[in-house]
């Protein structure tokens, strides 16, 4: 969906498409949605920067603190942080600062694994050498309790307060859980199994995001973080696959090309970026491995690149006609779905 700025509305007024009063009414109608939607404004950058710093403090960078607070102290500390975070979120909601309120609720969700770790440590269920910082590095079966609790709390808070940013820790925890659960059920799971698991879980995350995209409006983009985490998980697992077959590598390139097309159709840049990286990776393989001593390969690649640019120019000029032509040849259900998510 294209975003319309105030400058574009003013241009419409100057072109006598709409009146000045209509433009002001549109701005007033959309103002609340604009305030809630993430943009690249300085205030929103500060919101996310501050929120991510606080979240990182209790997740990625909480390394030796548990040794000083131990189990009960750690649970108490998480309880205090949760009450403060929840109170700040409610305070911001009452004053219509929805975006930072959602970040504050997300901070509370991110405290869950640390609190569960403290409870288990207090009950003597953890070996002394196990530290919380390993949660983000090591794939172990005993993290699943923390992950299940995080998913439960995240789903509950998301059900009560519907803020899209809350999906971020839920999506990341789903990825963690898929890897740790694999170790739990398959004792001799190797690196290859984990890569396949990541690819499969990422695929289902993307499918879930598509379903959410279809069932919800774009005013609050609940599918965004599922697309990000799911896309990265799927593409990462796919890209780490190793094969000596050139056909497999070519299939990898074609899969990435399909990701680019999908990203263009559903207007999700993450797939375009990941697919583009995959295609460039395959071209690098051709340049440095397959055709490393062939003089005409760089020339052929240059011609191909210029051809792609030409296709882009033609696409920009005739995108609407092509999309309409494609829509008319899709089943009615797919047409409705594509109109819904664009």
Automatic annotation (TrEMBL):
The chain crosses the membrane at residues 45-66, 72-92, 99-122, 142-161, 168-186, 222-241, 247-266, 271-288, 294-315. It comes from the Bacteria. The keyword Transmembrane applies. Keywords: Membrane, Transmembrane, Transmembrane helix. The keyword Transmembrane helix applies. This is DUF2157 domain-containing protein. It comes from Fluctibacter corallii. The lineage of its organism: Bacteria, Pseudomonadati, Pseudomonadota, Gammaproteobacteria, Alteromonadales.
């Amino acid at each position: 969906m294209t975003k319309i700025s105030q400058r574009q509305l003013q241009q419409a007024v100057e072109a006598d498409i709409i009146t000045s009063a209509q433009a002001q009414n549109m701005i007033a109608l959309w103002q609340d949605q604009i305030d809630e939607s993430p943009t690249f404004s300085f205030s929103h950058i500060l919101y996310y920067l501050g929120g991510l710093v606080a979240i990182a403090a209790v997740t990625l960078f909480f390394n030796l603190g548990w040794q000083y607070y131990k189990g009960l102290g750690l649970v108490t500390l998480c309880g205090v942080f949760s009450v403060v975070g929840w109170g700040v979120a409610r305070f911001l909601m009452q004053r219509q600062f929805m975006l930072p309120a959602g970040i504050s609720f997300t901070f509370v969700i991110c405290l869950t694994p640390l609190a569960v770790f403290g409870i288990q440590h207090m009950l003597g269920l953890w070996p002394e050498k196990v530290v919380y910082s390993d949660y983000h590095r090591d794939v172990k079966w005993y993290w699943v309790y923390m992950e299940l609790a995080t998913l439960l709390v995240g789903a509950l808070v998301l059900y009560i307060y519907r803020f899209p940013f809350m999906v971020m820790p839920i999506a990341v925890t789903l990825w963690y859980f898929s890897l740790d659960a694999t170790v739990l059920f398959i004792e001799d799971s190797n690196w290859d199994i984990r890569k396949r698991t990541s690819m499969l879980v990422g695929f289902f995350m993307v499918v879930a995001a598509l379903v959410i995209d279809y069932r919800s409006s774009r005013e609050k983009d609940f599918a965004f973080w599922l697309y990000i985490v799911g896309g990265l998980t799927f593409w990462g697992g796919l890209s780490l696959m190793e094969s000596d077959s050139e056909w497999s590598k070519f299939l990898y390139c074609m899969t990435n090309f399909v990701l680019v097309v999908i990203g263009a159709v559903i207007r999700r840049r993450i797939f375009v970026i990941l697919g583009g990286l995959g295609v460039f990776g395959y071209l690098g393989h051709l340049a440095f491995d397959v055709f490393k001593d062939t003089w005409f390969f760089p020339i052929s690649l240059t011609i191909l690149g210029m051809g792609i640019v030409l296709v882009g120019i033609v696409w920009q000029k005739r995108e609407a006609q092509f999309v309409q032509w494609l829509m008319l040849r899709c089943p009615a259900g797919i047409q409705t779905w594509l109109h819904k998510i664009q």
